[in-house]
Amino acid sequence: MTGTLTISAARPRPAGLVARLIRRPSAVVGLALLGLVAGAGLAAPVLYPGDPLDMIGAPLQWPGMDPAFPLGTDMLGRDIAAGITHGARISLMIGAVATLVALVIGVGIGAGAGYYGGRVEAALMRLTELFQTIPPFLFTLAIVAVLQPSIPTIVLAIGLTGWPGLARLVRAEVLRLRDGELVQASIVIGASDARIIGLHILPNVLAPVVVSASILVANAILTESSLAFLGLGDPNVVSWGGMVGAGREVIRTDWFVAAAPGLAIVAAVLALNLLGDGLNDALDLKRALR
Amino acid sequence: MRMPAGGSAAIRRLAQMVSVVVGIAVVNFFLLHLAPGDAAQVLAGEAGSATPEYIAALRAQFGLDQPLGVQFAKYLAKVLTLDLGFSVRQGLPVAQLILDRLGPTLLLMGASLGFAVLAGGALGFVAARHAGRPLDTAISALALLFYATPVFWIGVMLIVVFSVWLDWLPVGGMAEIGTGRTGLAHLGDVLRHLVLPALTLALYYLAIYTRLTRAAMLEAYGQDYVRTAVAKGVRPRRIAYRHVLRNALLPVVTQLGLQLGAILGGAVLVETVFAWPGLGRLAFEALFQRDLNLLLGILLCSSVVVVLANLAVDLLYAVLDPRTARA
Amino acid sequence: MVSKGILGLGGAAFGLILTAGAALAEPARSGGTLTAIVQPEPVILTAALNTAAPTGVVSGTIFDGLVDYDRDLKPIPALATSWETAPDGLSLTFHLRPNVKWHDGQPFTAADVKWTLENVWTKIHPRNQVTFGKVTGVETPDPLTVILRLGQPSPAILSSLNSNGAQILPKHLYEGTDPLSNPYNNKPVGTGPFKFKEWSRGNHIVLERNPDYWDAGKPYLDRVVFRVLPDAAARAAALEKGEAQYAPLSPVPLKDAARLGGLPNLRVETTGYEWLSPWLFADFNVERGPLKDVRVRRALAQAIDRAALARVVWFNFGVPATSPVPSTLTDFHAKDTPAYPFDTKRAEALLDEAGWARGANGTRFSLEIDYIPYGDDFKRTAEFLKASLRRVGVEANIRSQDTPSYTRRIYGDRDFDIAITWFAAFSDPQVGVTRAYWSASVGKNIPWTNGSGYRNPEVDGLIAAVQGEADPAKRRALFRRFQEIVLTDLPTLPLLELKFFTVEAVGLRHGARGDQVYGSFRDFRFDGPAPGQSRASAN
């Protein structure tokens, strides 16, 4: 939209990226936290082989009351620790897949608009504006309510409403690249549009997109928890949002039921944002879109 | 990039508004009709019992017995003549319902955004001036923490601490009812009710503006004209305020325009937790009651607000950055 | 709580009925503002046109019924001072209270009753079209007498005459209009103890004392404010702080209710809901898959530990149900009906017998569970059923949806296996229970009717017979037979008799009628200083 959004052209080589990344304390903390969350998710089937939705204990046991349930049990006597670890898989999956949906749409529309310009650009950007004008959370709510809440519809709804910022970012990047020497030279030698976009443009847009993606994953996890708070979760799987949503009824008496998954959400969102910041710095992007 | 100013911007925004309004009408009309059940069924369901005659009477009354295409054509024709129609569920004109709720929502959004921009800007400014030092780290960490905590969670916790434990502020609502307060006393009452919801909604955006301001300031510090100023021996404080902050405000203002739509979404959660009689909650309820006219009306109004805000942003840009005015 | 005998005597004797422990000699304290919580916000404020619970709560104190109901669900005089049923059961005469005025000053007369019956109850009221279905004519020989002529005896009418069951609208404001869109639905004019003052949508509804109320000296309060608080935690906090003093219809999470009840300033009351008698049940779709087989339905019934469901999910705000007719309906509830005690071994044996042996993965078959989206208690009930069925090898998938999607799925599309919901049984099973079994409503997309798809001509015959039977003993026998059959065929599994509750300030006193939740606030008053009192006296 404006000149301040342009991102500097210098791109480090990947090998240097890791080195740069681990020199940033925020990135290290973010990576460590994310590793912890992902590790918990990976270890879940080993640590808690049963179904985390099984009612295996007395309901509402406080953490520490029974060594078998270090984080206590919820209203139906389900193990909260098992829920947190299994929930890590679901919540990260929701974040990742929803982001993928947003990426496909956002990069597609942004690249199309930036590369082709003219009427295509006008039409695509009008569409983007339309999506940006409808309050995104309200739109997500509407889609989930209409399609009825389940993991696939939640993921789809978050993805469908999450892309406009990305499209703008990609368009701005593509606009800059399109007028660059490399692309102009390719056009002169008669390379096809697909080839130019695939070979010369998208790889160069990758860096800011990756940074945005880490933030989008974080936002998707937050959105899922907000949906669950409003009662639009999927009761067949454990997700952190669903756990917080279930725990809010006993928040005054047994706050740990909502606190534990709430902290897990904070940790994951924090990790992804720290990582995004770190990547941003390491890739020497001046600013990525939020 | 091009950034039209003045009259042409207004015309462009107006054209944009019309196409967005039509777009929203189309998207939502058909989206809501994908949903099983209609308003007649909601009413019948809420009634606890019903007969086929009762449902048929409701349907005929609401015009839901007509073909979808006819319903849509009628709706679109009305929207284009600025008639938002009648809420079948609430038995009142949509425009009246929205006007009743618009004030509280604008107050909540204005207070939250105002606080977020001012406090976030200040924090970001301080952080940027202490970049890399502990104060910067502390501010950045705090901002991230606010950003990462679910809004509804903050809201519920604020109620527990400030309303129940400390008993400083009311639990919810917008004013004490039936006190007959007027003038300043009434204003004070509303402000007391506003504190917690506005703070809840603000913390998330505070985090965003802190980060944004900090980043924009740091970027501005790298610009040639700032370096020149430093080389010329201008005092750092003067540089920070006169050169850097002014330029750092541009992205903040841009973000403000983009964020208005998002903040109404956040208002759904905050208004639910604090019983704030605003548009967000009204929209949420309309959705579940299949109150199509009302939901569309709210979405249209909010999009008009967003478009107008973007127009204001364009104009503000011209003021803040003389370069765009020449473009 | 209340001595029952004195209640039947008449409206004039009603003034001094107090909650337990109250000294009768203590003068009734007058004045003050009662802040109540109503959730969700009502759609309109006339229960004659919308029988949803929140409308009933607000509307119940703006309007009066012909009668109220005591704790034993016997009618007691309100707008009707007395009534007689003819010996042949074919006419019903009401004598109306003289000198009653609508809030706009017009007199209340028999013409209002006749008009409402002919134009609202039998035309658009969702329940009364059946209840008053046998009315062939209404006569008003004088302004204070109403005679209903009946084609068949209709004893259920006497169970549905309070301000919620059969609300009377002012003829002079409704005649010649479309009742459903009459503007007075949003600013009602009634005869009740409180007058409508203001409704700020999404915010509050304010009612003011009716100084010309027929029950002299009442109401005691100056004003009633209903606040709309959508979040349960905020409702609990408002009650805890004393910002609200009365919140009916289970306003807070069940777990929180126990906590609030333990606070010195609040009490949790489960009386006042007898007229509703809510029951929780699971409809089995008898037209689909394994559930077509009654053995499977019985097996699933025995796989569910209803006592644990009451304890764990409903925090004992419910007791296991043995019949669709709740035990609170003492006249009609049948004991010794076919029972399905919790016994997973028996359940597994029945499933094996029905040909659904466990497969290689331990699963016999899978099905879908849908639940009424009225709160987390119902969702957790679904989760409880899912976990219970899993133990006997039946895999369940829970589906969430909003109310219109739910009613469409269950009562229209019939695309479900097990549906969890609740009905109000009301004081006569004819009004609230038989609708779940009557075959004529299957698949007609009418919410809260026969969800299971059960069709049994004998049951339909019994349902028709109880409607036209005047002899109480014969009706009891018919209902007993009805319960035996539907509990043998088990298209619908009664789970719990729910106990709704009210959270109220300990200083708040009121009578305890069986329909108090939808009743008027005429005897509500505060013990000691009332909220808003000082301001009222200062004015």
UniProtKB/TrEMBL annotation, chain A:
What is the annotated signal peptide range for this record?
A: none
Alphabetized Gene3D superfamilies for the sequence: MetI-like
Q: Where in the cell is it found?
A: Cell membrane
Which residues does the UniProt record annotate as the domain ABC transmembrane type-1? Answer: 88-276
Q: Which key words are in the record?
A: Cell membrane, Membrane, Peptide transport, Protein transport, Transmembrane, Transmembrane helix, Transport
Subcellular location, principal: membrane
A family per Pfam: BPD_transp_1
Q: Which GO terms describe its biological process?
A: peptide transport; protein transport; transmembrane transport
Q: State the annotated membrane topology for this chain.
A: Multi-pass membrane protein
Q: Which positions, given as ranges, span the membrane?
A: 92-116, 137-160, 201-222, 255-275
Instruction: Give the InterPro entries listed for this entry.
Output: BP-dependent_transpt_permease (IPR050366), MetI-like (IPR000515), MetI-like_sf (IPR035906)
Q: What GO CC terms are in its UniProt record? A: plasma membrane
Q: Which residues form a coiled coil?
A: none
- Its domain of life reads Bacteria
Cite the SUPFAM superfamilies for this sequence. Answer: MetI-like
Protein family per UniProt:
Belongs to the binding-protein-dependent transport system permease family.
The record ties this protein, via PANTHER family, to: D,D-DIPEPTIDE TRANSPORT SYSTEM PERMEASE PROTEIN DDPC-RELATED (PTHR43386:SF1), OLIGOPEPTIDE TRANSPORT SYSTEM PERMEASE PROTEIN APPC (PTHR43386)
Can you name this protein?
Answer: Dipeptide transport system permease protein DppC
Source organism per entry reads Methylobacterium symbioticum
TrEMBL record, chain B:
Q: Does the keyword Membrane apply?
A: yes
Residue intervals of the ABC transmembrane type-1 domain = 102-317
Q: Give yes or no: UniProt keyword Membrane.
A: yes
Highest taxon, organism lineage: Bacteria
Spell out the Pfam families in the cross-references.
BPD_transp_1, BPD_transp_1_N
What does the similarity note say? Answer: Belongs to the binding-protein-dependent transport system permease family.
Q: What is this protein called?
A: Dipeptide transport system permease protein DppB
Q: Which organism is it from?
A: Methylobacterium symbioticum
UniProtKB/TrEMBL annotation, chain C:
Query: Gene Ontology terms, cellular component aspect?
Result: ATP-binding cassette (ABC) transporter complex; outer membrane-bounded periplasmic space
Q: Which UniProt keywords apply?
A: Signal
Kindly list the biological process annotations in GO that this record carries.
peptide transport
One of the entry's Gene Ontology molecular-function terms is:
peptide transmembrane transporter activity
Indicate where this protein resides in the cell: Periplasm
What Gene3D superfamilies does the record tag this protein with?
Dipeptide-binding Protein, Domain 3, Periplasmic binding protein-like II
Q: Which Pfam families match?
A: SBP_bac_5
InterPro entries, A to Z: Peptide/Ni-bd (IPR030678), SBP_5 (IPR039424), SBP_5_dom (IPR000914)
Q: By its UniProt entry, which CDD domains does this protein fall under?
A: PBP2_NikA_DppA_OppA_like_13
Which residues are in the Solute-binding protein family domain? 74-434
Signal sequence extent: 1-25
Hey, which family's this protein in?
A: Belongs to the bacterial solute-binding protein 5 family.
Q: What's the protein name? A: Periplasmic dipeptide transport protein
